[in-house]
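Quick log. Single chain, no ligands specified.
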Amino acid sequence: MRWVEEIDPVVLALVSGCDGTLPLRDQLDLLAAAHEVDVETLTEVAVPVVAHLVERAILLPEGAQ
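-> predicted structure:
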């Protein structure tokens, strides 16, 4: 299947950083600092987005191959 998603620059930065070297929590901390937003707010918005991207296999959970 081929999925196409519209994303904003923050989601793009998050997905770009998902290379397995940092836990999601650390990535959200870095993104919040870089975009000068509250990490709790960013996390609240990001978790459903990440879940959707995992559901579509755009992102894979740790250990999945």
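The radius of gyration is 12 Å.
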